[in-house]
Amino acid sequence: MKIIFWNIYKKELSSIIADMIYQYEADIVVLAESENLSSNKLVNQMHSKAQEWNEIVIKAKGNIKVFAKKQFNILPHKEEKHFSSYKIYIGDKIFLMNTVHFPSAMYSDEVARGHFAERISQQFEKIEETIYDKKERSSFVVGDFNLQPYSYGIAGVNAFNATMSMEKAKTISRKVNGEQCLFYYNPMWQLIGKKGNAQGSYYSENDQQSKSMYWYSFDEVLLRPSLIDRFEWTYFDYITEINKMSLLINGKIDKKKYSDHLPLKLEIMEE
Predict the structure, then answer these.
(1) Distance from chain centroid for Cα 259
(2) pLDDT tens-digit profile of 135-189?
């Protein structure tokens, strides 16, 4: 199950998205800020490449669109303005895919974004409880969090409680003030500062806190512990090139031609 997430900056990028899907052999693509994308054009582009795709239609409350190969059995489960949830049926297993596009750092400070993440993480837990009962939670969250992996909204125990430690995540939860807080595992730490042309998914030289960060890992995937051993590390990365065309220019993201974010690709093995 190969998945690509991309915040497409309100652009009509159906042709380049189709090329990306084909090149990286994606099965599911999640697109944020997609209000100006022609869904029909993208589906037709994939048909021209001899692949049958569908848009997984959900009420248009937000700006997230999800497309998948026809053979995938995906049902929309819940949608709010900043997230949508989908159940993916593979054999007798249900994977819960939560997709997010959280408020921008341009309009909300980190404390406010952290509190927002708290509320959404709690909603995701409630959704999990309706699907998994006491069973293993085969769920993950992917999207533009507008938060760094070390931010409170991601790592905070009352928010997503996402740790970089695979070993700790596999213990399922930790007790804080008498309450069990479920872990997510955050693999994004493996990409931070990685050698190459991009050390994150978003580039900015205008840091509000006067830190020399430049690259930000706002686009992330968080895994429940049961999916850790299903995660395929060789596929996992930011995409910097599509059809021999670079998404970067002069060491920065080419937002004029493409988007202000880089796509993130990941793979979760079915077995």
Answers:
(1) 16
(2) 789 999 999 999 999 999 999 999 999 999 999 999 999 999 999 999 999 999 9
* Tokens representing residue 169 in the block: 């995540």
**Residue pLDDT, tens place only, 2-41:** 999 999 999 999 999 999 999 999 999 999 999 999 999 9
Domain boundary assignment for the chain: 2-267
Q: In the CATH scheme, what architecture does the domain 2-267 have?
A: 4-Layer Sandwich (3.60)
Pairwise CA distance, residues 66 & 45, whole Å: 15
Residues 190 and 183: their CA atoms lie apart, in Å, by: 18
Amino acid making up residue 115: H
Structure tokens at 261: 């974010």
Q: How far is CA 136 from the centre of its chain?
A: 21
What phi and psi values does residue 209 have, to the nearest 5 degrees?
A: -105, 15
